[in-house]
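USER:
Make up one protein:

ASSISTANT:
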Amino acid sequence: MSDKPNSPIYVTRPYLPPLEEFLPYLEQIWATRQLTNGGPFHEQFERALGEYLGVKYVSLFANGTLALLTALKALHITGEVITTPYSFVATAHSLLWNDITPVFVDIDRQTMGIAPEKIEAAITERTTAILPVHVYGYPCDVRKIRAIADRHNLRVIFDAAHAFGVRDEGGSLLRHGNLSVVSFHATKVFTTFEGGAIISPNAEIKRRIDNLKNFGFLNEISVTELGINGKMNEVQAAMGLAQLKHIDTAIEQRRAADQTYRRLLAGVRGVHCPMPPAGVRHHNYSYFPILIGRDYGISRDQLFTELRQHSIFARRYFYPLISNFRMYKAADDRKERFPVAADIASRVLCLPIFPGIDEATQTLIGELIARHGGRS
């Protein structure tokens, strides 16, 4: 077998429904001339998505970052918010955009989400909320976080960008918190090209969110607050409807790829393949992270470079920590405060996983990794 695939292999690629399925949606959009502003596909998709996810109140957005920005505004979050340094930068950016100070705390080694036992020491009189992240679709310890929030009268907004379709013992992971925000970016398990949504607990907060994402309009002639243009357009919604027909098949293909990697990497010295925490009843296999140990033959960064030389574009996801970026150093410039997050960020590598990845490619990746680790 060649040591290079025929074309570059990236961490993910979007599942696309058959073109012949998608074209009738476009034809209807062209016929009605309704491109946005809550058109028929937007309304259909919002209902269908709620039914699939098992949640009642869904507000669609043009992208996940706009959804995060609006979720914070909808709950009147101010002051300081406790969050994780181990995430995509949009998590913390959404706080700064709302003139909120992010307060970073360390993460849990198993879930790689925020460590509940680190939260209370970071609470001050200015703290108004907690913004945890379900990293790789691995659930945070939602019950402990909720208990802390209740004790201190704090709101909880979950950045659930990776958690589409994930379920725990009680149902959708998105039901937790005061709000949950999910992303439909093209790198995600489920995509609308760009897109996102906020999951609300009741109709009242959904109405406020829907007003905020439409410039703050209460009705045609009344603007009641400072809103934003976060609306999902009809082409995005049509893509979502087409994707929903195939999402279970796509997740099953991801599951199979996950199992193949675990078989190929079993026993490779210095390579650890994390597992979803106990309590997950339905995972979405959104990423396949591995952690490179000190007993591996080369460093994580050397492996990263070697894979790229073989056209395998794995990602150091998430590296560096958000707290290491220039605009956040004023908030906390001491990485030793986050020893677990710093350790994982220095060792993590996400391997390509997506519907349709072939076993030959996975075998090549496994062989490239195993040659430096040997078998224990």
Summary: The first strand starts at residue 9 and ends at 10. DSSP finds eleven helices and 16 strands in the chain.
